[in-house]
Amino acid sequence: MTTSSASEPAVSPSREAAGGASGQVAGRALLVVAALIAAGTAGFELARLGGSSDATLIVGSWRTFGLIVFAGLFALVAWRPTSYPGVLELSILHKVAVTLVAVNNTQAADAWGVVVVDGLIAIALIAGYLLLGCYRAWKPARTAARPSAKEQARQDRKSSAAGGRTARPGSGAQGGSESQGGSGTPGGDASQGSGSESSGPESSRPQSS
């Protein structure tokens, strides 16, 4: 008897996002846009580093290379939304914090530029995070090849029961009939036959008075 596997089919965590297929496309597009904004701003800042003073060179370099790193991270998450737990959460925290600092200090140099660039990146990241269901990256992936422990125990019970039912007819009924036919009945007939043969001559012998 063959048992059919009832294990659940593999489901990609990213496919369970709230937006479905259209949400996948929109979420990936938003992350790509965020990566392009970060890369474009990094190129603009890199061009400005040549004319920076000693007071702003280190700060400008930090922001420039940080934007390059962020652009790469956004592209990686857009490629595999549920393979990098914590990356998008930390990126959202950084961009929101920088935007809030710039909003509260509009008198600082380039404050409005930071508000526009980092604010747009933060909005795109939050929307992409929700559409792609990137929070599912913290959950282990389910596989179809390995059934659950309960299902495995059920399959083991079915296979053992099937093996017991196929083993009983060959060893019980047939073996018993062979033992009865081979040893019991023929042996009993032979003993009875010999007894009747031995008593035959004695019964025909004349009695003495």
Summarize the structure in words.
Keywords: Membrane, Transmembrane, Transmembrane helix. The chain has a domain of 126 residues. It has 6 helices and no strands. Helix 1 packs antiparallel against helix 2. The two termini are 79 Å apart. The relative contact order is 0.13.
* Computed CA radius of gyration, to the nearest angstrom: 43 Å
Question: Which whole number gives the mean pLDDT?
Answer: 75
Give the low-pLDDT segments: 1-18, 172-204
**Sheet of most strands:** none
User: What is the helix fraction of residues, given as a range?
Assistant: 55-70%
Anisotropy-based shape: elongated
Beta fraction: under 5%
Number of strands: 0
Task: Give helix and strand order, one letter per element, not per position.
Answer: HHHHHH
**Count of runs of 4 or more consecutive helical residues:** 6
Structural class: mainly alpha
N- to C-terminal separation? 79 Å
Characteristics:
0% strand; elongated; mainly alpha
Layout of helices and strands:
Blueprint: H1 20-48, H2 57-79, H3 87-103, H4 111-132, H5 149-171, H6 173-204
Helix pairs in contact: 1-2, 1-4, 3-4, 5-6
Quick gist of this model?
Keywords: Membrane, Transmembrane, Transmembrane helix. The protein contains six helices and no strands.
